[in-house]
Amino acid sequence: MAVKSQKRKKVKKKQRGKAPAQVSNVQSGAGKWGLSQPRWYLLGWSLGTLIFLAQFIGRFFEHPTLKTRFITGGLEYLRPLEVLVFVLIAAGFIYFSYQVLLQKSGDKRTNLIFTILISVGLVGLYTLGFNPQLLPNGDNAEYLMNAKSLVEYGGAYRLNMPSNTPNTLASLGLPLLLAPIYAIWGFDLVKMKILVVLLGLALFPLLIRLFSKKIDKAQAIILSTVVLVSPHLVSASSALMTETAYIFWSVLAILFIIQYADDAYKGWKLLVLLLLATLMTYLTRAIGITLFAAMMLYLFSRVKWLTFISGRDWKGLWTNRRFKKFIYIFLPLLVAGVAFQIRQQAIGVSQAKVFLADGLLERLLLNFDSSLRVIGQMLFSVDTFLWYIFFGDYQLVPLTFWWTPILLAILAGFLVYLWKVSIIAFYATISWITILFASRTPAEMVIMRYLTVLIPFLTFLVYEGSKYLLKGSAKGLNVEISKYFVRMSSLLILSYLLFSSFSSDIAVITMNRSGQGPAYEDYIEVAQWSKDNLPEDAFVAAVKPRIFWLFSDKHSIRSSSISEDYSEEFGAEKLAHFREIGVTHIVIDRISAASRENIYPIIEANQELFQTLYVATKSGTSAIFEIKYE
Hints:
mainly alpha; 5-stranded mixed sheet; 5 strands; about 5% strand
């Protein structure tokens, strides 16, 4: 009888367990294809992704500037290669998105195959976007200058100036990486750029590992894929600029910080690696100081302070492993940071003094307004990226009501992960606030460039934030929401990001493959002519002095800037200044309005003082003159 009684109890338990599901199906009236079924959401995600794919295909030749460059540059051969690359990446993205939506896990072999497909696609994308030329940006020439300076002089100096003055605010992280290449091969731009590309591609496995600590592996893979196809990262990987190296070191450092903070970890080797990666982040860009602050806040927040304070257990605090991990880093960094700033102030200008300059509150408000106008567009808008790289041909997409959900999703991501004591949220928040205080200009293009180093973390936060925003909104409205709807919506955000990034990547590839234009090539030609034909003691005024120095090996100084306005008085003062500092030659060009509007009129008004030495042969837009003061 006892056995039969137990069987009856088991049957009742099974019936009670099945009842809710049966009732749910009856109440929904949905049947097999009801809204409680994941198939509807799979269909919705598929349709949305197809729409984004159609938009991407329609953008191939939508923009006149790209179409002109594509056709005149003879780049038709790139089209099948671009399609192949995008298909490989999209195939892997769709495969893992299917797993995320339906909460299924494929077998390890198939997962590995699709991960490899994405990796091959990313290598192809970064190869197609590779530009062997030096970009017409003076900053990349300065990093090359600093690499040479480190090898030959043991420090950072302004080698383009006759006095070789110390460059106390130089960012040495990238030059340190380039210095070995310079020491062996000289200014081999291709090898140096390949190094930067490799750092960019290395972000894929690093980000997968980082994101996997917060979300499952399939989500981490698709999220890392979306980050790597960002046109900002693809473009930066082909430039000798700091963005790629900075993101690499920051992600690596955050991984080390998380591992170091793990209660199970003991030892000092990881501490050394952590400090080196964090130091390289700071040396690459001064904003890297925020990673030190985020690390301190993260380690500090993990200590259970209330437990020790309420119990007045000071002895227990000093023996607590989390507290010791915090103090082992905090005290040395505090001493080293103060000493470094004192040294910088003694030999020049420290970053702290620049940051604490007057007008902090005003800068904060203006920069905050600018950041709101670009942060969503930076991630999602193709036209905004085209404005960013072409400027004159496009306009920044205005901030309208339709951007509100994106901004709210970003905000939700920040708030939730700050509450969860996440190093990602700490770092992104402190970096954003520091940029708002430190930027000397509220120009949207400048703010956007500063924010690009946060793209991996902003992408993660907008993805996660969209989930919490939907769940929180449903809870606030007292409405039930399907978990499949939440997954579908967040995945559609990533689908849109993927295909909009593809559209912008085409712009990067087209621009890099079509060259920098005849005006820039003329400028380089004049610089190269000057290397062999000007005297050793020549001192040249040029609109891009660091680039001119790089190709001419002659001392150079900026001739004019767009902030100046020509007048007869201006021309007389400029000539007097050139004479005072010993300028012997001057270059005119068509790559800057400053040269056309300020320098050319001076030469026209004082033709007896200028002797033409060389005019570029490609299109005749650049020339160099000797100045005859007597």
